[in-house]
Amino acid sequence: MVPLNAYLAVGAIMFSIGMFGVLNKKSGIIVLLSIELMLNAVNINLIAFSRFGFYGNITGQIFTIFTITVAAAETAVGLAILIAIFRNKGTISITDLNIMKR
Amino acid sequence: MMDSIGLLTLITFSPLLGVLLLAFVPSNKAGTIKLIGVLVSFIPLILSFVMFSSFDSTINGMQFVEDFDWIQIPLADNAMIEFKYSLGVDGLSMPLVVLSAIVASMSAIAAVNMIKKRWKEYFILFFLMQVGLYGVFAAQNLFLFFIFFEITLITMFFLVGIWGLDKREDAAFTFLLYNGLGSAILLISFVVLLMSAGYYEGANGTTIFTTDIQTIIFNLNNSASPYELLGVGVSDAIKYGVFFALLVAFGIKVPLFPFHSWILKVHYQAPPPMSMILSGVLLKIGAYGLFRMNYGFFPEITETFSTLLIILGIINLFYGGILAFVQEDMKMVVVYSSISHVGIIILGLGAMNSFGFQGAVFQIVSHGLLASLFFYIVGVMYNRVHTTKFSELGGMAKTMPFTSGILLTGALASLGLPGMSGFISEFLTFLGLFENRPILAAISTLGVVLTTVYLLRSVLNVTYGPTAEKLTHVSDARSVEMIPMVVLVGFVILVGVYPAILSEPIQATLQLFLTRIGG
Amino acid sequence: MLENAWLVPLFPLISFVLLVAFGRQLKEGAAYVGIVSLLSSFIVALGILFERLGHDAENYIQNFNWLTIGDKTLTVGFEITPLNALMLFVVTLVSLMVHIYSKGYMHGDERFPVFYTYLSLFTFSMLSLVISPNLLQAFIFWELVGAASFLLIGFYYFKPSARSAAKKAFIVTRIGDLGLLIGISLLFWQVGTFEYAGVFEAVEQGLVEPGFITLTAILIFIGAIGKSGQFPLHTWLPDAMEGPTPVSALIHAATMVAAGVYLVARTFPLFEASETAMYVVATVGGFTAIFAASIGLVQNDIKRVLAYSTVSQLGYMMLALGSAGFIAGVFHLFTHAFFKALLFLTAGSVIHAVHTQNIKEMGGLGKEMKITRAVFLIGALAISGFPGLAGFFSKDLILMSVYESGHVTLFWMALIAAVMTAFYMFRLYFLVFSGKPRHNANVHESPKNMTIPMIILSLLAIFAGYIEFFGFGEWITNNGVIAEEVEGPKWIMYLSIIAAFGGIALAWLMYGRDNKVKTGEPRGLHKLLFNKYYIDELYSTVVVRPYTIFGYVLKFFDKYVIGGLVQLSVWFSKAIGKIGSRLQNGQVQAYGLITIIGLVLLLVSLTAGRLLG
Predict the structure, then answer these.
(1) Residue B2 — very low, low, confident or very high, per pLDDT cuts 50/70/90?
(2) Which of A22, A24, A99 shows the shortest C-beta gap to C586?
(3) What's the whole-model pTM score?
(4) How many angstroms from the chain centroid is the CA of residue A52?
(5) Cβ contact, residue pair C185, B430, below 8 Å
(6) CA C394 to chain centre
(7) Which of C76, C111, C181 to mutate to test the interface with B (most CBs of B within 10 A)?
(8) For chain C, which terminus, N or C, has the lower number of CB atoms within 10 Å?
(9) Residue C584 backbone zone (phi > 0: left; psi -120 to 50: alpha; other: beta)
(10) Are C247 and C376 in a shared domain?
């Protein structure tokens, strides 16, 4: 049987990769992809705990489905925003989007 | 009165009626807006007179008490934080509520002529500020006190920042910076008090943390308090720390030297009706807080530092007095005279006997009336000639005899002429000081001469002498403009001739403060 | 009648209130309001005086609670003693005369009603001061008369000189009042009351230390110095002549300036208990008497001469009181009120006619102004101590008291001052009324409502002195309760007559015989006197200028040091802000990184204990 720690390790690695992507990648699309990665890392954790947790029950799995739904919606909105930005500014490079400075 | 809405709530929130009414008036109907502005401001005034007349001066505790549960935050381990909505007045706060109502209604009348734009917003903010004003004196717990305190601060920021003179924004930010700093210190002190001394044992052995003033006073001053057993006792370090923090916080508001520089800018730039409120009532919150909290919470420490207070008072008295003498602008003289006059409040508080305390309260009321009168008259002048510089003024008595007469009367009252309120406050304060500290008292009486010198110099410069060019074609105050002058002078004379009207209601409460000090 | 004494100040108060409310509508009718109220007061005061004259009459006192502070109750009330019954009579009478006189003198002034308003305020305050049974009430009205005096001095508000004179009067007397305030406050905590009776009782029973008595007595005397224009606070009184002349007669000659003397007389038992205090009073009085008289010798402004004469005569009264001559001091206060008011009113009559106050521009007025000339002569003779007139008796009594008290130097000073008094009065008389006119005004005698008060006062100036023979001394001291009568050798009387005649003769030799006016700059001693010993200049350099300079230094301090500190803290916050704002580069990813670093740090710090331990 695969131990809980293995699941958690995969989750942690995926999360870290995703976080690295969010913080470092220049392209907006890649950033969105990285966010997906982080969300999925969380999903793995949720499922693992639902199976192996102290009080293992179905809630974790149900929550995962929620998360996937929300993530899909979020990606859709995120992409829509990126398209809007691209139409306005001609770029989706994160470094050029610094209007918060002002 | 425990379960129904009481007089104090009505006084505090009746200005909101004005906000409601104004909401239905289009903003270009200036006449209607002003009418509502003035009329609604008189509701708290009338109610406060009702309160004054039914006030029982034999009781030294709180009256007109209202106490409702408001916010309760459960904590772990059988404890909770409780903020109540509790109002009440005693002999110390009752006169201040009445004073606020008088000054606020006069300020509303003053605004009719002196505010020249965006009346609707002005009066809405003005009404909100009034809520803060009455609330701050009636609040019976620190949380409520702080909320009302902040209401006055924020509304005043906008009132100065929008309707002031040409450097109004700068002044408004200065105001916010200083007072915001004061508020921050105040908040920290309140939190420390809440954590260290604000608890009592509720039903079922729950520990209830509260900011109720009476509870805090009880816990701080009864070492045998059963709640000491709860293990949160108050160390001396905390006591001294909070004492000085409060002194600084209220010292900024009063303002004590060297925290005074904000009022120079703010008063100069603020529209006259707001200067009236500022110097008449808002600065008094500082003195009130000093009395209510420093003296209420830490009577022994206050006693130890009474000499410090007296010296601070003397510094204010002399510093303001000397600087007022060299100003070249009438408005600045009035501002510095405010600094000088609050020195007397502090002196009275430092005297630590019933004469001194009475003198301090009298000075709070007297200066509240006189300072607003001065700012009002300066505003009336400015409205006509658009300057307050001595070099461009003079001989006002010829073209504006009524206004000049009132100005002169105000000056005489302010320098302590008998028959008017200034005398009573100065006399009682100095008499109180003489009991235990004759030397310091003798030094401080010199302040009377300084006051005479600068007031006569400035007032005579404006009213006497050959009539200045700018003043030759102006008309005297119209009847609407006369109302605040007559009313304020009327109260000044009333308090001066029949001081028992004020001294009796405050007597019992001040005696309670004195017994706490143990003298 | 005695229980209704409160009516006396009430009438002027009513008149004051009426005139404040309706003065503008009444115009010159305001005079009638003033005169009627004063007449009522005078009648009541007369009734009180007669009732109190009776042999079995008792002092009357009534008190009401005014203010309760802690366990102390402050009272207000009124009392009638011989001293204040007499003062009520004097004040109401002179005030009535001045009210009537002013109707003519102020005719045509556009602020006519205001003048009467102020006069009523003054009379009310002065009368209330007189009937005060305690020091607090006395202090209250003491300040109020000062304020009324200030208002009246500055009556011609558009004149810069009047403005500064009013200011000076208020400030200088305020300095004196400070002494009084400190004195009564100290006394209050020592004796526990402001009541005269209570204070005297405590002093008599030896409850108060002698040193403390001296201190408080001298502090109270400082108040009297300010109000009565004694050296060194005398400078305001001559300047106060900027006010309308009737005011000078009422306030700055007959009544208010005598309040200082009255106060010392009223608190006489306190002074008597301290030899040092008495000596101070006598010395200040004696010095002022000769000092002011010497300045009066050379002044050219008719009112200023009279003003210095007032200062000098008040010094006389103080000298008498300080030499234990209670009767003499009060007696002189009484007679002086009449002849000095008279002299001022005649001066007003002269000024009214020639529109100048400079005696070098007068001369020969006697021909057209016969009544004025006659009453002025009576006044001048009375003040010079001409035998048979009022001033003779009182001055004589003063000299005797001083001699009896053993202050030999002061006695001779007083005598020289008497010579000077006679001299400057007749210098005035000769320069104003005799000789050839040195003016080109069309001179008329003043109207009846001005001359009649002068005539009444001149009769009093002649006859007021004779009350000495009707048991005045015994009566005023309340049958010897306050002080004892003094008797001196007869030769003093002859000496004082010689002094009077000497002064008059000298004046005649210098001014009456050839009636020449010296021109050219004064020199030497004359210059020193003419410039009033440069006291004003001294105060200006020693007090006023340093204070102003200090003020400007402080202004600089306030602006740059305190303001600088504020700027410094602003700069400091800004500097911190600059550093912080570097991080705000608008890069979302940078923000995210910082957030995550923060989160990690937080987690590590929270769990560090468990990880390590």
Answers:
(1) very low
(2) A99
(3) 0.86
(4) 23
(5) yes
(6) 21
(7) C181
(8) C
(9) beta
(10) yes
